[in-house]
Design goal:
heterotrimer; A alpha/beta; B mainly alpha; C mainly alpha; A: Rossmann fold; Rossmann fold; 15 strands; 17% strand; B: mainly alpha
């Protein structure tokens, strides 16, 4: 069954690959032509951004220090890789991208401060950055006030839509619903136990998941638990899980708590090859710390896995490892971060301008065929259409893709019936 | 919520829940023991205590890694070697810190707090530079993974039992050291009256240094043991620090028995509350309870009558 | 040796008037003229932390009470202000797309359909301004009374305040429907109809902030120079003697702690106004301890030092974290240790020992050396 599915998947991917291959040389060739006769600066920059005849400035804003540095490293590396590739292929509208990087230091006010610096002092044409919802919420008013453009890579809770932000990750319904449907159909998931870290993303995600389980799947939620960020003692909740005997454990625990949770789960005798566990918070990055042997058998619901088999991805993985080392792993957010610079480049070329208003207006409908995750498109609500995939964690720390939604899923940041 | 379950189920859950509380108790005791010695006996607030634990954890990480690649045959016992090394590494660093930093500050306890906080920042960044910002996982020997099936429904995690055993051994060792050895007598004498202790010929400087070293060494062992149940990252140490201090203060500084009693009551409260309420609420309620009791009884649960 | 009496102490010595004038000149003239709007706003943000450092000088430096939970009061003050601003930004028209218009957006996301009771009074600006100072101060008085009446002090007090900071941050993050959770209260727009996001408004807020800071310095100076300040110092050095002399030691401690909390709260409110949002990341343990270092670097006994220390540490943090992010923590850690081991009196101590003698030698060689009360430890307050 799974094998058949994979075959279908592969041939679908091969078809897309052909499309992608056709697109790549064209995209690579075009800017080189454009560089020879790049449009004059006065035409592409009417609002005083940092654009010269040869350069355009882009900001990168992630935490290099502090607790979030662990998570944000990959995103920042992917953005640099994408920018390097774009520069090697001739830049954007005939201009090389110059990067200014700032450290958000895992501190939300610092994010706001640095965002303001990037927009007001450095006049960045676009900023790739932020990871947590809190940091995005902190910089959002800054981007709206000073009319900047932010490419935000993380899967997040939704409930937001801004002219000044392109969300290259999934919003909650895109990430969760198809996965729940799959676990219901394939694994007979009817009773669910939710466990998450205590902040807005797990709570909102679980809220959406609960509505879906109760109203659509006609199942029930037998428990819903939240722990402070950084909590490391899960024995009590594991007992509770044993008592309530759910078909499916649905986990959105983040950060260091993850490690403790999966280690203790394993030690308590819950065998993930028998007990279905679906997580929306563990990517290849997190498994690095958890240890593959502790989480093998769990299912993760993402739009991208490093093990995806398609030429775009193979090229991306190879380039990433070449730039950042053989041992690095690539998670969902890292890939989404990689999309940011490319989407911005494509939009600027379509708009024929770096002006933020024109970029914002031209974003709807932008298609990127070279994405490692496959074809993506920007919706008028500035989120991406993307697929949902389910992967099974292997002891090696990689995921084996067991399901892929047949179609791209429409982003729906304000889902009706789920609020 | 309990009405729907059979008696057998309930019995099993209560047994496992009791055990979960005991594991938490062991974790708390391990965290607090080193601090109880340093804070309780010496009056020094060591804010870098968490970082000494993490040092132990990283030593364990390196050590098990070494065994895995060079001595796979002995991998099963690598954990004990790692613990000994963790004790030595953290202890030596502790003695160094005492010599360089702490001994200048015995008269200013609040200042040791700031200085050791600075030390903790430096250690965190050092770990980050050496081991990277990502958390590292320690691979456990196979005999440490999984659980023991006691009855059909009761399963006890093996690593939890190991943590408990380690805790008991260390506690016993500390109690013996403090109350039955020459060193323990000297430590207690210095604590009660430093000048007098010096006058009767006790080398108070040396006693201070070994005391601090042993306290830090125990923290190292704790960190080593925690790799079995938790994560190891540059900033993991900070997660423990508040809990640890509260346990020591709640128990009444300077009292080993108090530390045990407070770790026991806090862990049982928290694990019971966690079972009936949500995790976050349980944590807040436990901390609130501790603070409330401390306001009513600031000297903690147990106190020694000491003339100062 | 003749001990100085209260009458010998004018409100401020000449050298202190000069210091005050220098600080006013720097904050209100030099910085606004030399910095662009962005950097000035940044300085404004740093100066809000100076309120906390100032409170710590009184509470820690003079009264000897080290609180590791000042972030709690900074946060409470900030949250009170932010609640008012958020309500103003959540008018029915502005929140039309919500299922319940007219309440803050994060409440709507958390299925709260009516404004919680404790939010309602914050629709009024006068109430808010009162609450900004009153709520944190009352809280500090309750905490202080509970502890100081039972003679909890020193390290115990430090650890308990730390635990309170931990509890409050878990509470705020956990109750996200009512508090905005870990995101905090964001997207604040107007104060009583005036847009606080424009450069002009930020400039005005900067001056308000500066003026408030100087007012707080004057209040602290008054406390320091009054009999009250003498008792605080005496209490720090020999608590029992003060108690046996018939003073209610606990009340004085509660006062010092409450004053520090009130200062911190004003800082928090100004922070919310200038930065445009409030986040629970200030309430935790780490920022609370970091704020202690501002006071320590400036000199724990120097009111002006608190301001300079705050500016210096934050300036260093911004500069170093921009150019050498990896080195910043090493630097900060070393700073903590250096301030404790080598410069216990911080910047103010360096100034007094090395700069001031030269100035006075050149200007007025006949001036008598500053008189240090005998009971004080060496190098204690003689600004």
């Amino acid at each position: 069954m799974a094998v058949g599915n994979d075959r279908g998947l592969e041939s679908a991917l091969r078809r897309r690959l052909l499309m992608g291959l056709a697109a790549v040389p064209a995209a690579a060739a075009m800017p080189r032509l454009a560089r020879a006769a790049g449009p004059p600066t006065s035409a592409v920059n009417t609002t005083g951004l940092a654009v010269t005849d040869t350069e355009v400035t882009v900001g990168i804003l992630h935490s290099v220090t502090g607790t979030m540095a662990i998570s944000e490293t990959g995103a920042q590396q992917a953005e640099k890789l994408a920018i390097e590739e774009i520069n090697a292929a001739g830049g954007v509208l005939g201009r090389r991208i110059k990067v200014i990087q700032e450290d958000g230091a895992s501190d939300w006010p610092t994010f706001a401060e640095k965002a303001k610096k990037l927009l007001v002092n450095d006049k960045c044409a676009a900023v790739m950055g932020c990871w947590t919802s809190a940091s995005r919420k902190a910089v959002l008013p800054v981007f709206e006030q000073y009319n900047g453009m932010l490419y935000y890579p993380t899967f997040y809770e939704g409930l937001e839509e801004s002219k000044n932000v392109i969300y290259t990750g999934q919003e909650a319904t895109q990430q969760i619903l198809a996965g729940l449907d799959w676990v219901h159909k394939e694994k007979g998931g009817t009773s669910f136990f939710f466990i998450g870290s205590d902040y807005i993303w797990p709570r909102t995600s679980n809220k959406i998941a609960r509505k879906h389980v109760e109203n659509v799947l006609k199942g029930k939620v037998v428990g819903e638990e939240y722990f402070p960020l950084g909590h490391t003692q899960f024995n009590s909740v594991i007992n509770k899980i044993k008592l309530t005997k759910p078909n499916v454990i649905f986990a959105d625990v983040v950060g260091g708590s993850n490690v403790a949770f999966y280690k203790q789960l394993k030690a308590s005798g819950i065998d993930l090859s028998k007990q279905v566990l679906m997580t929306i918070s563990v990517t290849e990055d997190e498994i690095d710390g958890i240890g593959g042997e502790n989480i093998a058998g769990a299912y993760a619901c993402m739009k991208y896995f490093q093990s995806l088999k398609n030429p775009n991805n193979e090229k991306f993985v190879a380039a990433f490892k070449k730039m950042w080392g053989e041992k690095t792993v690539i998670g969902d957010v890292t890939q989404a971060a990689y999309l940011g610079p490319y989407l911005w480049k494509l939009t600027a070329e379509k708009a024929g301008s770096f002006d933020v208003d024109k970029i914002a207006a031209a974003s709807a409908g932008i298609e990127f065929k070279g994405a490692p995750e496959g074809y993506v498109r920007i919706d008028p609500n500035h989120h991406l259409w993307s697929k949902t995939r389910v992967g099974r964690a292997l002891a090696s720390g990689q995921f084996e893709v067991v399901y892929e939604s047949p179609e791209l899923i429409k982003p729906d940041p304000f889902p009706k019936g789920y609020q | 919520m309990l009405g729907d379950y059979s008696l057998g189920d309930l019995g099993a859950i209560f047994a496992m829940q009791g055990f979960a509380g005991l594991i938490l108790f062991s974790v708390y005791v391990l965290m607090a023991l080193g601090l109880a010695i340093i804070f309780g006996q010496m009056g020094v607030i060591n804010m870098a205590h968490g970082e000494f634990m993490i040092l132990g954890a990283y030593v364990t990480y390196l050590c098990t890694g070494f065994f895995q690649s060079h001595l796979p045959a002995l991998f099963a016992v690598s954990f004990f070697v790692a613990m000994a090394l963790a004790f030595a590494a953290a202890g030596l660093l502790g003695m160094l810190v005492e010599w360089a930093l702490i001994r200048h500050l015995y008269k200013r306890p609040l200042d040791t707090l700031l200085a050791t906080w600075g030390l903790s920042l430096i250690l965190q960044q050092a770990y980050r530079s050496v081991f990277g910002a990502r958390e590292v996982g320690v691979e456990l020997p196979s005999w440490l993974i999984g659980s023991v099936q006691v009855t059909e429904a009761i399963e006890i995690p093996i690593n939890g039992m190991v943590v408990m055993a380690v805790t008991m051994l260390i506690t016993l060792a500390v109690a013996l050291l403090l109350f039955a050895s020459r060193w323990g007598k000297q430590v207690r004498a210095v604590m009660q009256n430093r000048v007098m202790a010096g006058a009767v010929g006790i080398d108070t400087d040396r006693v201070d240094r070994t005391t601090f070293g042993i306290g830090c060494g125990i923290a190292g062992i704790a960190g080593s043991a925690f790799t079995m149940i938790g994560s190891t990252g540059p900033t993991s140490g900070q997660l423990y620090i508040v809990d640890t201090f509260l346990i020591v203060v709640f128990g009444g500084a300077a009292s080993l028995l108090g530390t045990l009693a407070s770790a026991f009551s806090i862990s049982q409260t928290q694990s019971t509350l966690e079972f009936f309420l949500s995790g976050s609420t349980a944590k807040v309620l436990t901390l609130l309870g501790v603070v409330a009791i401390l306001m009513l009884r600031p000297q903690g649960l147990f106190t020694l009558k000491v003339r100062r | 040796m003749k001990l100085p009496t209260i009458n010998d102490n004018p409100f401020m010595k000449p050298v202190e008037w000069v210091s005050l004038a220098l600080l006013c000149g720097l904050l209100l003239v030099v910085l606004p003229l030399t910095l662009d709007a962005f950097r000035l706003n940044l300085v404004g943000k740093y100066l809000t932390y100076a309120f906390v450092a100032l409170g710590l000088v009184i509470c820690w430096g003079y009264a000897g009470i080290l609180s590791l939970g000042q972030g709690v009061f900074f946060g409470l003050g900030g949250y009170c202000m932010a609640m008012y601003l958020k309500l103003e930004a959540s008018s029915v028209e502005a929140t039309r797309i919500q299922s319940t218009p007219g309440i803050p957006d994060f409440m709507d996301w958390n299925q709260i359909t009516a404004l919680p009771w404790f939010w309602t009074p914050f629709r009024s600006l006068p109430f808010t301004l009162l609450a900004v100072v009153a709520v944190p101060t009352l809280f500090s008085v309750v905490v202080g009374a509970a502890m100081f009446k039972r003679r909890v002090g020193g390290t115990y007090f430090a650890i308990i305040t730390q635990a309170i900071a931990a509890i409050l941050s878990i509470l705020i993050i956990g109750q996200q429907g009512y508090t905005g959770g870990i995101n905090g209260i964001t997207d604040l727009r107007t104060l009583h109809g005036l847009d606080i996001r424009t450069d002009g408004a930020k400039l005005v807020l900067y001056f308000v902030n500066g003026a408030l800071l100087i007012a707080c310095i004057l209040v602290a100076q008054w406390v320091k120079r009054s009999k009250l300040g003498r008792i605080l110092v005496a209490m720090r050095d020999k608590e029992d003697r003060v108690r046996f002399s018939g003073y209610a030691v606990a009340s004085f401690k509660i006062f010092a702690f409450g004053l520090a909390a009130a200062f911190a709260a004003i800082g928090g409110a100004m922070f919310a106004l200038q930065v445009g949002f409030m986040s629970p990341s200030f309430v935790g343990i780490v920022p609370s301890i970091e704020m202690v270092i501002y006071a320590a670097v400036g000199g724990r006994l120097s009111l002006f030092g608190a301001v300079y220390g705050t500016l210096l540490v934050n300036w260093a943090k911004t500069t170093f974290s921009e150019s050498f992010p990896e080195l910043w923590l090493f630097g900060l850690g070393a700073l903590f240790i250096a301030v404790v081991l080598a410069f216990p009196d911080g910047l103010a101590g360096v100034w007094r020992q090395h700069v001031e003698p030269r100035l006075t030698r050149r200007k007025a060689p006949t001036q008598s050396p500053p008189s240090v009360p005998a009971a004080l430890p060496q190098g204690a307050p003689a600004e």
